[in-house]
């Protein structure tokens, strides 16, 4: 059975864990503290879930989801993530995480910085422009009229293929917004972000094309 390592047991990490288990995956989840602090979540998730340290979750995962804001000083387990596909749910929120000059100048996206911090990994931006509860509320089977769509950006086609499969299993269509340098198009304040309540793949593609760099984070 495929194991997903999930680093971050907050709103997004826990909701992705629920969706993953509903799709038949096993999950190994970490937060920034002792694994025992995730006891209530693990009890809720049942036998397909266990808690670990961040390094343990990274090591256990066939692929890994990082649902943790990016920090100036890298706090992710670089060695254990090397060689793995890493889905980064992070959004750039300067009010929360501080200002990154290279992002604000348009030089790099927050997901390119994550890729720089994890040089051996294959990073993909994913799940960034959907509110956690909507992972269930907005899901629908493949082929449904008006199926909701999510974007993915990566420099690695195998990472885009994996996210596309995962989105489909969770109940979403995919708009490929690669490479990673394009991920700002789905960032906070952009049309694709503002339409997070509902957009089909065709609408999402239009919204990604309408993105403008001048919108502040
Ligand atoms: N909330 C949403 O609906 C939503 C939707 C899309 C994208 N996002 C983005 O996804 C990211 C996570 O959002 P969230 O709402 O889930 O945040 P959150 O509820 O604050 O959870 C953050 C999680 O990250 C963990 N964490 C922080 N530093 C860590 C480290 N060094 N190692 C391991 N775990 C660490 C925290 O652990 P502790 O509890 O131990 O501190 C916590 O479990 C953010 O960048 C956010 O912008 C959020």
- Sequence of secondary-structure elements: EHEHEHEHEHHHEHEHEHH
How would the global form be characterised? globular
Radius of gyration: 16 Å
Bound molecule types: NADP nicotinamide-adenine-dinucleotide phosphate
Q: Could you tell me how far the N terminus lies from the C terminus, measured between alpha carbons in angstroms?
A: 39 Å
Tally of contiguous helical segments: 11
Q: How are the strands of the biggest sheet laid out side by side?
A: 3-2-1-4-5-6-7-8
User: Percentage of helical residues?
Assistant: 25-40%
Uncertain segments: none
Overall mean pLDDT score?
A: 96
Number of β-strand runs: 8
Percent strand equals 15-25%
Tell me about the biggest sheet?
8 strands, mixed
Structural class: alpha/beta
Observed structural traits:
eight-stranded mixed sheet, 217 residues, alpha/beta, binds NADP nicotinamide-adenine-dinucleotide phosphate
Brief overview:
The chain is an alpha/beta fold. It has helices at residues 11-22, 39-45, 54-60, 78-81, 94-97, 101-104, 110-117, 134-137, 157-170, 191-194, 201-209, and strands at 3-7, 26-30, 49-51, 63-66, 85-88, 122-125, 149-154, 173-176. β2 (26-30), α2 and β3 form a beta-alpha-beta unit.
């Amino acid at each position: 059975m495929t194991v997903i390592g999930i680093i971050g047991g907050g709103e997004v990490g826990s909701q992705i864990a629920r969706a993953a288990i509903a799709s038949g995956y096993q999950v190994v989840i970490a937060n920034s503290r002792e694994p025992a602090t995730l006891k209530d979540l693990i009890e809720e998730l049942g036998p397909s879930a266990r808690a670990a340290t961040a390094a343990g979750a990274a090591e256990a995962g066939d692929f890994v989801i990082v649902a943790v804001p990016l920090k100036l000083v890298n706090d992710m387990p670089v060695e254990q993530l090397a060689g793995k596909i890493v889905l980064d749910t992070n959004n750039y929120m300067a009010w929360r995480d501080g200002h990154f000059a290279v992002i604000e100048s348009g030089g790099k996206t927050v997901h390119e910085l994550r890729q720089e911090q994890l040089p051996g990994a294959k990073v993909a931006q994913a799940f960034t422009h959907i509110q956690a509860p909507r992972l269930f509320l907005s899901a629908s089977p493949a082929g449904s009229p008006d199926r909701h769509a999510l974007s993915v950006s990566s420099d690695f086609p195998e990472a885009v293929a994996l996210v596309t499969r995962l989105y489909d299993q969770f109940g979403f269509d995919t708009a490929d917004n690669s490479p990673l340098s394009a991920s700002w198009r789905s960032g906070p304040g952009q049309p694709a972000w503002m339409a997070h309540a509902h957009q089909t793949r065709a609408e999402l593609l239009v919204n990604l094309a309408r993105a403008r760099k001048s919108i502040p984070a």
